[in-house]
Design a protein that fits this description.
heterodimer, A: 75 residues, mainly alpha, 2 helices, 76% helix, 0% strand, B: 138 residues, disordered N terminus
Chain lengths: 75, 138
């Protein structure tokens, strides 16, 4: 493996590690939110909204077109 | 309802994630958290809320996976085929959870098992697919 390949590998590994750390933070935050709500009793409208905020943020990423991608027209 | 065990599991199950180095592992861990949640909650609104939380943990891993691995359609040879499938699983799980939520909120005393199981099945399928594509990461 040459120096350029090693650098590319390290760069890719660093990007994935950075993403992993973010995912861990999300998982902890969501777990804590669920724990807090369940401790308090039945989920309120505000509790559902708080959880929905995470889903909406994820949807924006997942459903956004990739560079060079043309999404089919909405049904 | 066994609240304390699942609350402890929610906290503990996320801690090992700190040592992970691949998104595939993260998705697997998130799926484990989701399974633990699913197995413990029996109160309908709380169950659906916890299920939605477990789903979003998996979804967060998938979103980061997409952002990292497939910013462009040709970033990886499989992005063009995998990401559209991700969106289908994502929407199916969201719709099933939304249906279950609407039912338990409108009928808090009624048996929600059919709707809950449909949401579980859709979320499990999504998590399984996410785990499968996650192993393609370095």
């Amino acid at each position: 493996m040459n120096a350029a390949a090693i650098a590319a590998f390290l760069q890719a590994a660093a990007a994935i590690l950075a993403a992993t750390v973010t995912v861990v933070q999300d998982a902890v935050a969501i777990s804590n939110l669920v724990k807090t709500v369940i401790d308090q009793g039945e989920p309120t409208d505000a509790d559902w909204t708080a959880l929905q905020t995470y889903q909406d943020a994820n949807d924006a990423i997942i459903n956004a077109p990739m560079d060079g991608e043309t999404l089919p027209p909405a049904a | 309802m066994k609240l304390l065990p699942v609350l402890a599991l929610l906290g503990l199950a996320t801690l090992p994630l700190a040592g992970c180095v691949s998104l595939g592992t993260v998705v697997t861990q998130a799926e484990t958290v989701y399974q633990q949640v699913k197995n413990y909650y029996t109160d309908a609104p709380k169950a659906v809320y916890a299920l939605k939380g477990g789903f979003i943990i998996v979804q967060s891993a998938v979103a980061k996976f997409k952002a990292t691995e497939c910013p462009a359609i040709d970033s990886q040879p499989w992005c063009a085929s995998v990401i559209p499938q991700v969106r289908v699983y994502n929407k199916a799980a969201e719709d099933a959870i939304a249906t279950a939520k609407a039912f338990v909120l409108a009928n808090p005393k009624a048996d929600a098992s059919t709707f809950y199981q449909a949401a579980v099945t859709a979320t499990e399928a999504y998590a399984q697919f996410a785990t499968t594509i996650g192993v393609q990461t370095p």
